[in-house]
Amino acid sequence: MAQCVQSVQEFVQDSFVPMVAVLCSDEAERLTRKNKLNFAELLRPFCRLTSEGHLRDPNNQLQVVKNLRICVTKLVPGAAPQLTGATGPPPAVALGPGQRRRLNRVVLSCQPQEGAVSTAVAAGDYDLTFNATTPWFEAYRESFLQSMPASDHEFLNHYLACLLAVSSSEAVPVEQFVKLSQEQHRIQHSGDYATPKWFIPNTLKYYVLLHDVSRGDEQRAEAAYEDMKQRYGPQGCYLLKINSRTLPAEQNEQIPDPWSQYLHRNHPQISQDRDDDDDDDDDDDPAVSSNTEENGVIAAEDHRSAGTGAEGGRPDAVSDPAKKGAGEAEGPTEARGACLTLTDHDRIRQFVQEFTFRGLLPHIEKNIRQLNEQLVSRKGLSRSLFTATKKWFGGGKVPEKSVSEPKSTGGLLYSPEAPELQIRKMADLCFLVQHYELAYSCYHTAKKDFLSDQAMLYAAGALEMAAVSAFLQAGAARPYPAHYMDTAIQTYRDVCRNTALAERCALLSAEILKSQGKYSEAATLLIKMTSEDSDLRSALLLEQAAHCFMNMRARMLRKFAFHMILAGHRFSKAGQKRHALRCYCQAMQVYKGRSWSLAEDHINFTIGRQSFTLGEPEKAVQAFKQILTNDSRQTATQQGAFLREYLYVYKTVISRSGLSLPHLPLPFIHSAATRVYFGHERRLAEGEKQAATHVSLDQEYDAEQASVWRELEEQLVAAANRGPVPANFQPSQCYLNSQTDNLRHPLAVVEEPMLVEVMFRNPLKVPLALSRLSLLWKLARDGHAAAEDDAEELVGKRDALERETTQSDDLVTAETILDFHLAPEETKMARLRLLPHKTGCLSITGVVYNLAAASSPDTPDDDGNVSAPDRACVVRQSPTLGAPLPLAGMQKAETVVVDGKQDLKIRGPRLNHTKEDKMFVRYGPDRRLEPIITPPMPLMEVFFLQFPTALLCGEIRKAYVEFCNVSGVSLCGLRVASTHPDFFTFGSPSASTPVTPLSPASAENCSAYKTLASAPGSGAACETLVSADDFGPVSNVVDIPVGGALEPGQSTQLPLWLRGPDQEGVHEINFLFYYESPEKGTKISHRVVRHSVFICASRSLSIQASACFSAVPPQRGPDRDGGALVFVDVENINTSEAGVREFHVVQVSSSSQHWSLNKCINPAKEKDCKVSSRERAKLCFRATPCKPPQATSDNKEMLTFADVNLGNERIVSSATPCGDFFFRCRRTSESRRGNAGSSGSRTPSCSRNLSEDTRKDPLHMGNGCNQLDLNIIVIWKAYVVEDNKQLILEGQLHVALQAIGKEATSLTPKQEAQEMVLLKFKSDPPPPAALPSAQLSRLVKSNLHYSETYAHDFTRNSVCVVPVCLVLSNCFWTDVDVTVDLRHKTGSSESGECACCFAWVGQSRYTLALCPRETRRLQLRACFLAPGVYNINTHAVSAAPARRKRDDDAAPPEVAQHGAGPALVVITDSNQ
To answer: How far apart are alpha carbons 382 and 816 in whole angstroms?
Structure first.
């Protein structure tokens, strides 16, 4: 149960107090009415004694009475009922209709105060807040206990004494006392009145003389009082002086009013003096039932369930007194006690104390003694005899069967003198004066007697009070007998059919159990007391049971919520709308957000209806909003009814509040998914023109792709600024969503539209119809005050332009979507457009629309017709508050349309920069809907013509690109960057551009290369010296040669050469076009256009090339400087996907600083090389060193292009597009290799641009010796027939030969995954430097020149000396130290077989230095002793790079050089 103001002991004691009647004369009544009170009301605030009273029990033990309270009420006799027989059973104790109405008013008038203290409970993951106290229940309980009519089976509510009040202004006050005494005696003993009931026949009469101090004669009053003391004794009378105030109280004087807390409760005991006549009239109406009387003061409510309301009902507007609110005063009341002073208050308090201590308590003590003596005298007889006497002679009781009671009650009616009733009477007297031990003994004795007589009503009463007495005994002599209470409740309810007594018993027992912490037993007891005969009682008890579940040690929250819902339902049936609403709201805390969707819907629906009935439509709107916004599991029909109810209530709220644009909950708007696009939508393809893809809302956002675009834009900005990227650089953002950087205000351009895509979701299973959907915005002008276009202004203008699709304004034009339908549970995008006309800061605040419940296309309406989804027939209405909506099936309800809006509030990303951000949850701003409108900027559109989608690897194709300036501002600085810079070229302005057609229509079968006719039979290569700077700087950014600025409306068309990627597959190629305005200092420094294209590359040819030095001595070759052989393998790897069956290699070109192809030395006669499918051809070329170029001041890199054509035409490889693609692919391959030697310098030669430390490195010297740096360009053609037309495909492939003996290929090698390397915390020591013998073994080339046959006469001279010339050639650009050792002996078997007696004569070891590319000859002599065949190649040649004189390091070790083959000489004897 809820917490109470009183303790359980105080509550039980105050439930049973001595009853005192008041009987006043007319003059005394007039005297008290000066204070707006009768005499009983005058005494009521002072009826609780502040001091202790004393009395002695039958054992002469002093008994202390503490905190005693008496109940003083006006004596109002009631007529006795007409009985059919002389005797009958005791009348049933039941509440009349008037009492029920008063109880209902008590609960209704006691509402929870706003701002009252509430209890917060945290149980698990529940956080509940509810009222800790229930004053309405306490008021009901107090009023109910005081409303209990007196019964014959107990004496607790019987009057013990009667106060007779007479005014001192009476002529003879004593005569008035005699009349009042006779009147009291007549009422008690005549038998004409059934009520009130009296405790004992000799009722205590206490005589009170009221004296008006302000007007009365005090001496006369004192004389009358002396006469009273002589007649009635000093303990039986009292002189009470009141009305001491002669003047009315001043306005600022504080007059205490102790009567307000008693008289404002409106319980029946207080108001019965004024309302008894009316109540008696109401009670006489037999047609009034209990439930009807409970609801009599409140208008009936429509108790339709949610299921009934689902068929089209709406909440009714009912006039309810509860609308006044909690604690609201009914009106100004007149001041009570205005003629009384504080002294008078003390006199009244003293009077009550004197009456109690000197009159009431002695009277009770005397009666207890008398009853005890009677009982003791009767106990002298044998108990068995006494029992037998009672059995045979009845013991003073008259058995009589009651017509209205069942047989189990016994139908017994004891006479007033029956000993059982005397025991009960003594027990009640002891209980009233707090002698609980003696009271329990008497109750226990009476209980046994009643049970033996089967007097169940009397037995239940004795059990009830015995249990209460046992609980109230000081020191807890015996435990609380809860089973006594259970038996009493069951007997009252089931046997005696007396619900009021059972309810009283349950209230007492539940409070006692609660004080002992037995909340579960208390809840069970309260729940058992609920029934259908009283909704108010059931509601209050269910609410208290719910609080019991909450106060248990292990809180039972779901039971609390369930019983609160039951209590709310019964409150609603009892007409207590506000209490019902409170119960549902408290239960909602448990069910909310716990996946109890059906329960939530029921609770919210009830809260909505109750709130609407109570005149709180705002709360009703919130409740209905929860039904619609939560994920509901209701059927479509139910949700449709909920939606109609919500729209009706919402319409009412709008009409009351006067808001033109309130917030609507439907449909859901996913604000975080809002996307914004700035600029015009791109034009679609026009004929052969293909528009640049750029950015649109139809594209999905890719974070990786966005980073690619950002890198490209940074490259363009750096190129435009001719330096690094500015620190304040921000990438262009035409498209914003939740994944983009929205911390800064985006930039938009005036007179360029903005497209806002809003995501709507319909959570219901019924369709929604939105109409006239548009954006809400406000604009802060630059240099002006904030000019806002509020929602109200928008709606007013929209009503005037109802049939137009857009609204024009001087600031911004907003587009309106007339009809926007959402299917059940559909998520749909709405694209809304704004066109700003002025600069400033624009803020998009939300969307505005009309909402209605659309008819489902699959569900027939009330007329049985199936509605089309695209029909939007909206009928406006202004329903009157409380007008019920016609039920479904009776007539078609008009569609309710409400105007409203929803805000677009987007939360930014979580901040995690500072310590405070990490400690607290903070979010940054999201300004995607807050663009800054800038002045006009240029706007460019890009179109492509004849742009292919599929190419062969290396294929060259010519396309055209068109640039259009569609703005009113000129543009300049046109550039482009791409992720594949080797894919395209616009040509080189300084290089010779081939003569090609300017229009796409004249480009059929026209070669993209610059072609020259070659002389027939010419096999030598044509060389051209070209500077690399002529083909543009080393950058991925390309300046587009448009010839200046593009004026507004101007367009230009440029050729664009494309080359298929070297690797097959689908390639995504991104172009980013950059342009800017000629005007500097604008907020938008530049603009970009994006274009993405997918190219499918198919296989064409595979080129593998290798090179080796020629073994022919330099002086014997055609070139005295020596040369190398280049082998080119061409393989057709095409799978005939593009209809290509054979390729023709028409030319092989080279590009290098040091080498060039000289001629083709292929043995084949046919010069044209054809390669069919799966075939391979091998070409051999001689390469010769290039002549060093003349030194220039600008230190340009010069390359020699050599073209060896295999056909009748020569393609100029140094011109566009061949040269462009070569340089672009060269840079790409260098970046892929990523080593310092190739990518760090544009000059591969290691002898010119290397540091001194690097030149001393032997390993690098060896690499430099083998370095070739020869780029091979293979140009091919293929013939394809498509659409009965022969097309010529042409292309080029590149192979970079880096070193001698190292094979190179045109195919890009696949990167293999790196193996996992174990983590090492300590680095390994460096490995010992190995001698680079393999790399340095080809520094010097050696050849022996001699006569292969030599004849000698051995008879004349036994020694034959043959001259031999040793030729040493340094083939590299390094100084070499050479050592020739003639004493070296070879260990090969061949030399052993060929040499018999052979020796070198003369100097046996030579040391010499060879300059770069130098040839030296040594004259040697070989000595033979006999004829034969000799191998004279026995010398050893070792070389090492020359060491400079200034170097302090040790000389590098010499490495043995590779020699030629065996040098055989034949020695013959001339005599033979």
So the answer is: 105
CA distances from 1200 to 1156, 1157, 1221, 1227 (A): 7, 10, 16, 17
Provide the 10 A C-beta neighbour count for residue 1358. 11
Q: If residue 466 lies in a helix (H) or strand (E), which one and from where to where?
A: helix 456-472
For residue 1472, what pLDDT band results from cuts at 50, 70 and 90? confident
* Residue 1019, pLDDT score: 62
Please say whether the beta carbons of 1243 and 1099 come within 8 A.
no
Pairing between strand 19-24 and 159-167? parallel
pLDDT of residue 1307: 81
Q: Dig out the tokens for 191 from the structure.
A: 């038998």
Dist. CA 415–CA 397, nearest whole Å: 5
C-beta of residue 801 within 8 angstroms of C-beta of residue 814: no
pLDDT in tens, 1030-1088: 776 667 788 888 888 889 989 999 998 999 998 889 999 999 999 999 888 888 889 99
Instruction: Check if the beta carbon of residue 940 is closer than 8 Å to that of residue 759.
Output: no
Nearest Cα to 974, choosing from 1078, 1074, 1089, 1048? 1074
- Separation CA 810–CA 794 (nearest Å): 13
Q: Identify which of 293, 336, 319 has the alpha carbon closest to the alpha carbon of residue 105.
A: 293
Computed from CA positions of residues 643, 645, 647, 653, in that sequence, does the dihedral angle turn out positive or negative? negative
Which of the 8 DSSP states describes residue 1245? -
Task: Please give the model's pTM, rounded to 2 decimal places.
Answer: 0.65
**Cβ distance 1288 to 1211 under 8 Å?**
no
Q: What is the DSSP string of 319-357?
A: --GGGG-TT--SS--PPSSTT--HHHHHHHHHHHHHHII
Q: Which range has the worst mean pLDDT, 677-691, 1280-1294, 1425-1439?
A: 677-691
Q: Which residue matches tokens 């593998």? A: 1104
245 has a pLDDT exceeding 60? yes
**Euclidean distance between CA atoms 74 and 41, whole angstroms:** 9
Looking from the CA of 753 toward its CB, the CA atoms found within 13 Å total: 15
Question: 1171 by DSSP, 3-state: which?
Answer: strand
User: Two tokens at 639?
Assistant: 């949700």
**Contacts with 1328 (C-beta within 8 Å, 6 or more apart), sequence order:** none
Question: What DSSP string runs through 1117-1161?
Answer: SSSTT--EEEEEEEEE---STTS--EEEEEEEEEEESSEEEEEE-
The answer to whether 807 and 728 have CB atoms below 8 angstroms apart is no
The first and second tokens of residue 1208, run together, are 């009748």
